[in-house]
């Protein structure tokens, strides 16, 4: 069983833990195993990647491990007095590693050595990792119902906020320092990061199991519940709820009713605005983060239902090339790599109807847009043999065709329509600095359309100089930036500028003003006229008496074609 959220490395390697007690590293493109490391018990925590390539992961054997990301060899280990379920968290400057334990303690360690810096004891178990604010404050939730704000220097308490339920999910921190935390009292809270003052709270459901995620001015949260909250109207798909809330006020911007009883995994947001989340019906869902519109869903295993065999505890992990990695939560433990919806165009969607085990209808629910070729269409369900094709006209699907109806379908399968191809887009990355030098560059978006043209990399700002790096391409996507010089003198993190994919250069010329020179006979009266087609003329201004042999007029170029003439006025 895999409940661990995958982490994607700088070079595309995917790291994840398993119920068999191993941490695995696999090639993100092929799924081929690179190495594995055995711990003494199951691993449910998602791995954490350090800027130097170290992989940190905790196990139910009470130990936090630091492993070499390339080889899987041990760098150090730290033993707690309880199991470790949540992911470890690095401070923003990578100078401190934080991990919570079932022994009620939060530990702060030196990332390079594993030496204990300080520890903090709560009143109950710590199920999830902490969050770190912009000023370094550590925010930690505990089953003792409290959210703690801790001084990063020594772990002393800055403030405490008490809810009416246990806190088993990692808080989220906005760019303004606001802290968002979900509690088993069915509420999502927004707290001032400096004082702990409550800004707002919203009832989501009878229990909340999806950690909140903040993106700009919006907070995203899902719920897992048997009954909807009183202030949420019932939906056609069940009591599960997923919504986007105004980060400043808590007002619901959009909400949808999901399948079954809810969402157990935290959402992940791609660079194109797609929100990915797993549900308890064993499906990965992709929504537009702005509108909540379903872009696609993908059934990972079996027949959708509400039982522990189909729950998705693993949150999606996103690769720089847009690939979505997620585990199916089943006993046989499978990790899926799914072609994510990173396209500017919209993916088409369709639904199927089954009769006597065969597909008898595949109906479009959205035609999509931006298709330049015929997409792949797949029926995913408990039957087999169905073959589907699509018909595309003017960039949109107009029909899904059943070539083979298949057999043994007990219910309608999920229809997956491949998203449209992505136009060229610029890669993005961020850097970290240590003691004035660049420590590592992490890809946040791999871009698209580079082909074999390796883009240049520049480091702009930050007060230092001398840093340089080269890009690594895989299938036209930037998957890694290798530092060739760390530079020096950086007081802040510089901007990483990766050149855009090659395109056709062009020059646009726009005339802003028109200078009209009139040749006249002094002493005569004239009228200036204009026309758009040299057939119909209109006066410009009023008649004037020529005092010189030439006269100059300046006009704004409001039209691409504009003719002028001068005639003698009566």
Task: Tell me the helix content.
Answer: under 10%
Beta-strand fraction estimate: over 45%
Radius of gyration: 30 Å
Number of H/I helices? 0
Mean pLDDT: 83
Category from helices, strands and their pairing: mainly beta
Count of extended strands = 48
Can you tell me the residue ranges where pLDDT is under 50 for at least 5 consecutive residues? 226-238, 302-308
Biggest sheet features: 4 strands, antiparallel
Report on the structure:
- The model is unreliable at 226-238 and 302-308 (pLDDT under 50).
- The chain contains no helices and 48 strands.
- The N and C termini lie far apart (96 Å).
- A hairpin with a 4-residue loop joins β25 (268-269) and β26.
- It has 570 residues and is an all-beta fold.
- The chain has a 4-stranded antiparallel β-sheet, with no helix packed on it. Strands 5-6-7-8 form a 4-stranded antiparallel β-sheet, with no helix packed on it. It has a 4-stranded antiparallel β-sheet with strand order 9-10-11-12, with no helix packed on it.
Topology record:
Blueprint: E1 7-8, E2 13-17, E3 22-27, E4 33-38, E5 48-49, E6 54-58, E7 63-68, E8 74-79, E9 89-90, E10 97-100, E11 105-109, E12 116-121, E13 131-132, E14 138-141, E15 146-150, E16 157-162, E17 172-173, E18 179-182, E19 187-191, E20 198-203, E21 213-215, E22 218-223, E23 241-246, E24 252-257, E25 268-269, E26 274-278, E27 283-288, E28 294-299, E29 317-318, E30 324-327, E31 335-338, E32 349-355, E33 358-366, E34 377-380, E35 384-393, E36 396-407, E37 414-417, E38 428-434, E39 437-445, E40 457-460, E41 465-474, E42 477-488, E43 495-498, E44 513-519, E45 525-531, E46 538-545, E47 550-556, E48 563-568
Antiparallel strand pairs: 1-2, 2-3, 3-4, 5-6, 6-7, 7-8, 9-10, 10-11, 11-12, 13-14, 14-15, 15-16, 17-18, 18-19, 19-20, 21-22, 22-23, 23-24, 25-26, 26-27, 27-28, 29-30, 30-31, 32-33, 32-37, 34-37, 35-36, 38-39, 40-43, 41-42, 44-47, 45-46, 45-48
